[in-house]
């Protein structure tokens, strides 16, 4: 996107470290959250239904798909593959989670968010909502860092989308020497 200079391409800036940290934190959380739900997808469906936001017929496909999507996004972020689009996708999922948690909180519904498995109605779930929203806002910040600054540290993207090396100037190519002693 922007031309790189030698100094910039060889130096590690705080942007590089912020991007890496954001990528690994968000990726790790998504991977763990999805992996914990995979063995029991039915509990993921129950967690989605507990929010009472979607038509009943949509809760099963979303409950089954969400853990798989979380694992896939987590793996892609951790490896730094298609980082920007995956970070934006992970950030949008976190925005959706914040909206869903704020919605049940505003409606006085007490549930376990189901973020790391489980889910459904509980007696004292409302007390956890501020912490869950704060956590997800922090993860949105991680997604923003990973999406905003190009991944350069420990990222597959650096190999997939590396700038090609410049071609040598063809006018300066050495000419073959002729041996005059044989002539």
Which SSEs are present, and which pair or pack?
Elements: H1 6-10, H2 14-37, H3 41-50, H4 56-79, H5 83-106, E1 111-112, E2 120-121, H6 129-148, H7 157-160
Antiparallel strand pairs: 1-2
Helix pairs in contact: 2-4, 2-6, 3-4, 4-5, 5-6
Notable characteristics:
elongated; disordered N terminus; 2% strand; two-stranded antiparallel ribbon; 7 helices; 183 residues; single chain
Question: What do these coordinates show?
Answer:
By secondary structure, the protein is mostly helical. The chain has one domain. It has seven helices and two strands. It has helices at 6-10, 14-37, 41-50, 56-79, 83-106, 129-148, 157-160, and strands spanning 111-112, 120-121. A hairpin with a 7-residue loop joins strand 1 and strand 2 (120-121). The longest helix is centred in the N-terminal third of the chain and has 24 residues, at 14-37. The termini are far apart.
């Amino acid at each position: 996107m922007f031309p790189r200079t030698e100094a910039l391409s060889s130096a590690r800036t705080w942007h590089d470290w912020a991007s890496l940290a954001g990528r690994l934190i968000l990726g790790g959380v998504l991977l763990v959250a999805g992996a914990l739900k995979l063995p029991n997808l039915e509990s993921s469906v129950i967690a989605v239904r507990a929010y009472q936001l979607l038509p009943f017929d949509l809760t099963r496909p979303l409950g089954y798909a969400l853990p798989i999507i979380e694992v896939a996004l987590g793996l892609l972020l951790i490896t730094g593959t298609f980082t920007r689009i995956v970070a934006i996708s992970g950030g949008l999922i976190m925005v959706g989670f914040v909206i869903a948690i704020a919605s049940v909180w505003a409606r006085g519904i007490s549930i376990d968010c189901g973020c790391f498995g489980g889910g459904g109605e509980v007696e004292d779930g409302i007390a956890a909502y501020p912490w869950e929203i704060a956590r997800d806002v922090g993860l949105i910040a991680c997604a923003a860092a990973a999406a905003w600054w190009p991944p350069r540290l420990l990222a597959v993207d650096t190999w997939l989308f590396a700038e090609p090396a410049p071609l040598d100037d063809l006018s300066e190519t050495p000419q073959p020497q002729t041996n005059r002693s044989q002539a």
